Fold this sequence. Notes:
By secondary structure, this protein is of the alpha/beta class. The protein has two domains: 59 residues; 252 residues, Aldolase class I (TIM Barrel, Alpha-Beta Barrel). The protein is 35% helix and 16% strand. It contains eleven helices and 14 strands. The strands form three sheets. An eight-stranded parallel β-barrel has the order 7-8-9-10-11-12-13-14, surrounded by six helices. α5 packs across α6. The longest helix is centred in the last third of the chain and has 19 residues. The structure holds phosphoenolpyruvate (PEP) and manganese (II) ion (MN). Manganese (II) ion binds next to loops. Phosphoenolpyruvate (PEP) binds next to loops.
Amino acid sequence: xxxxxxxxxxxxxxxxxxxxxxxxxxxxxxxxxxxxxxxxxxxxxxxxxxxxxxxxxxxxxxxxxxxxxxxxxxxxxxxxxxxxxxxxxxxxxxxxxxxxxxxxxxxxxxxxxxxxxxxxxxxxxxxxxxxxxxxxxxxxxxxxxxxxxxxxxxxxxxxxxxxxxxxxxxxxxxxxxxxxxxxxxxxxxxxxxxxxxxxxxxxxxxxxxxxxxxxxxxxxxxxxxxxxxxxxxxxxxxxxxxxxxxxxxxxxxxxxxxxxxxxxxxxxxxxxxxxxxxxxxxxxxxxxxxxxxxxxxxxxxxxxxxxxxxxxxxxxxxxxxxxxxxxxxxxxxxxxxxxxxxxxxxxxxxxxx
Length: 353
Ligand code: PEP
Ligand code: MN
């Protein structure tokens, strides 16, 4: 059940609803609706007499199974990290190496992506590798370098957390917690980051349906952490021509289903350096709130994901085009010239009538 309360609702109303739910043995929670009001979600329904409290605007007994993530009754969420707004209308650029490989290389990469126009620095300290014999990341040492890069460049940082036990440690260093594709359905991890007070970037599972992805977002939000950002990073297709299939259809679809910001990752989504730019721009045109890109000064030498890592010059070009496209899309429409002559075949058909 979803109960939407007016913006001038007495505090007692939401407390009465939450108490009534608890007394009925039902879990309930409240969150702002983004318009000054409050949304109360209850697992199951409350009896009608409980709903007599003042200030109730609407009551929905049937709704999406992800009431907190759903766009129903909610304004678009803007996640603020430092002075960067994600979902605020200006596409955000998150960029950096796949893995943090050392202090000097990370600092060099951080300054290079900053100079290319990135807003947020990415870099993995805990790496989910397909092979147990591949480089697994520098762990806490890498997190320390990430924090130093933030200090030097002023950019907030995002990094992956893979296990519930790592969440406190990663929170000490990171501004955004990344949940990777392989962990989208790791419910203990989702519950744990739901208790954290740091934004969470939730990547789509490579074989996950949109409703499953939104249910994972709901896990995080149900824990009280409403700062969730969705990231489309490609799904498993049948064609090995690209590493994954970047599903850009989800951008306008998610706009209808959820109020959460949406980021596109064309690096993992394609696996091919030369495709990163075009697909990043396509993501922005589809309406994404930002892009997430692997970039560093020596892409060929990257220990992980070298084939999809771009250099800072290419990133600079993508950032400039991203800004231009986003301005063009919000500019007033130029009226289409009306006087286009009818094609010849149409005229001859009309004559034949
Ligand atoms: C990454 O961002 O480097 C990463 C491992 O991403 P994904 O979980 O999408 O594979
Ligand atoms: Mn990677």
